[in-house]
């Protein structure tokens, strides 16, 4: 089962439950990756891009993760999403996710694809 730590989509907005995939017990398919994702503008249940920013240490597993995420039905779960990158941890093959208190992956190095400006504070 793919267990995903999907904490803090936006600091003040609750996230939807992440999708679940079938369990794969092969040891070469076990690890935790830090991934930056952003959803499609026209179809809010699909991830447009997934970029590994904290690799598992297994290049083949990282490719499978980044290829699989956009094929999952994964609703944004927030009304104010504007196309920004969101950092998540993705634990695969029974690997243990980082603690909920650990910082999420940093997506600040990803290109800005936002389609709307952030609301004024």
Q: How many DSSP helices?
A: 1
How can the largest sheet be summarized? 4 strands, antiparallel
Query: If you compute it from the alpha carbons, what radius of gyration comes out, rounded to the nearest whole angstrom?
Result: 14 Å
Helix content: under 10%
So what's the overall shape? globular
Mean pLDDT: 76
Work out the count of structural domains: 1
Topology, number of strands = 4
**What is the H-and-E element order?**
EEEHE
Percent of residues in beta strands?
A: 15-25%
Secondary-structure-derived class = mainly beta
Descriptive keywords:
121 residues; globular; 8% helix; four-stranded antiparallel β-sheet; disordered N terminus; mainly beta; 1 helix; single chain
Describe this structure in words.
- Strand 2 and strand 3 (47-54) form a beta hairpin.
- A 4-stranded antiparallel β-sheet has the order 1-4-2-3, covered by helices on one side.
- The model is unreliable at 1-17 (pLDDT under 50).
- Helix content is 8%, strand content 22%.
- The chain has one domain.
- The chain has 121 residues and is mostly beta strands.
- It is built from 1 helix and 4 strands.
In short:
By secondary structure, the chain is mainly beta. The longest helix is centred in the middle third of the chain and has 10 residues. It is built from 1 helix and 4 strands; from the N terminus they run E-E-E-H-E.
